[in-house]
Please model this.
Amino acid sequence: MKNILIIGCGLLGSSLVRGISKKKIAKKIFIFEKSKSNISKIKKLKLPGIITKSLENGVINSDLIIFCTPMSEYKKLILKINNFISPKKLITDIGSSKIESSKIIAKFLKKGIHWTRSHPITGSEVSGPEHGKYNMFEGKWCVLIKDKNTNSKHLKLINSFWKKLGSKTVIMNSEKHDKIFSITSHLPHLVAYNLVKSAQDFEKILKINLIKYSAGGLRDFSRIAASNEIMWRDIFFDNKTHIIKAIDLFIKNLRFFKKDIKNKKNKSILKKLSKTKRVRKQIIKLKQDIDKPDFGRN
Amino acid sequence: MKNILIIGCGLLGSSLVRGISKKKIAKKIFIFEKSKSNISKIKKLKLPGIITKSLENGVINSDLIIFCTPMSEYKKLILKINNFISPKKLITDIGSSKIESSKIIAKFLKKGIHWTRSHPITGSEVSGPEHGKYNMFEGKWCVLIKDKNTNSKHLKLINSFWKKLGSKTVIMNSEKHDKIFSITSHLPHLVAYNLVKSAQDFEKILKINLIKYSAGGLRDFSRIAASNEIMWRDIFFDNKTHIIKAIDLFIKNLRFFKKDIKNKKNKSILKKLSKTKRVRKQIIKLKQDIDKPDFGRN
Model:
């Protein structure tokens, strides 16, 4: 791979720029970024990429194009690149849900052009190029999508790209991907947002400053609920079918919990509270989180 | 204060032993602990306290008695100490909810004896004396309860005790306490347990190993859902009135969220997702959490 174009240079885009440069994966890295504020940050940070104001130049001069914008930007960008894209170019993205956005891509991308979809399982509650890290993808899962129309040759090359960055890769179809992440990522974010929203509502109802006492649990949720709102709106809308199923099961289970509490069902509640405990151990064993109590933050 | 008795020497009890010793708050620290496994850990750790097998000796020889057991143990212990307790003794606890447990205390504790209630806002998902820390209470809130029957003199002395440990103290009644913590602590724990339970259910339904992909959000919740099940059962049962109200508002808000997602209500959802963001900033400003992205864990 000679040159790579990063479209959208926020947290993950800038991490790609840093990682690709550090691992010497490309000769040149081009950056296409529409936000003036981000451009001035990128310049200040002296990120190892060439800022291009022309999307056409970026695309023409690159072998791999990576979309790192919110998913709601894809359509507009696709309609532009259709004018100068060629079938040899590798295209991928880092979007967190796949079924609906794949429909947009299939509908608007010029026929004969292949877009291979990726989803690196990483990120943070902070946004912007100043928070990016060269090792953002190291040791993390990257899911690659193989659907009916996926080009096998491109898939192989994109897979090797993520491996060079240090990611562990796994291949699955859009359906399976969207189901899994509706549970392990989208529902947790929704629940965190909803919990913080409910705390805000209670603050108004009770007329008490609650937030100052958030060290007892709420603070953990506030981190996730501080994530980028555009990105998360796009994910919620894009994966709505599976997210709605997840919400329904969550509410059903919460109702059972409420009943157990109301009727002081000792055995039933202890079973739940001890069974969920095991998941933490599993997560630590699978190296999906650090093994220090309290995330090691104190 | 000369001597202090710690009843129940787990995570917080052992942290008190360490903190009291480090700050030289007492001459002698007595430990009453019923679990053999904990006793052998305490000996191995060489905690700076005297293990007493006789609750009577511990009580008689101490000026301050601190209950650090799950709240469901209070009644049994009260019936025992009633035989040798005297009105001059200071008694407190670290229980996380207050209204119902205060009723137990009022009902069973010998007349004329004062129990002043405390709630230090600290802890962790891990249990046992091996995880205690001398600075567990430093810079943390400790809520002291002032109800109709609270003895002002004792309250003052207990207040000064927590301040010596480095806590910031605040006084409120049981009602206000239980309302606040139903939102900032009890509901978050319940929601975390419920989210992990729902993920486990989905794993069965979908027959897919989800947990390995938990870095996208679920892992944060799994920490809280690994908390001590006995302690949390007690809290859920004890503060059930307020927790049920909190669950109801939470479900109501989640339903609105679902509707917004279903109907792609752009403005409404963006408003929610950006408003909740502010809470994180508030929490960090109030020093209720560290200011590093991702809890500084990577």
Summary: Residues 8 and 34 of chain A are 7 Å apart (CA to CA). Chain A has a mean pLDDT of 96. DSSP finds eleven helices and eight strands in chain A. Chain A has two domains: 3-171, 176-263.
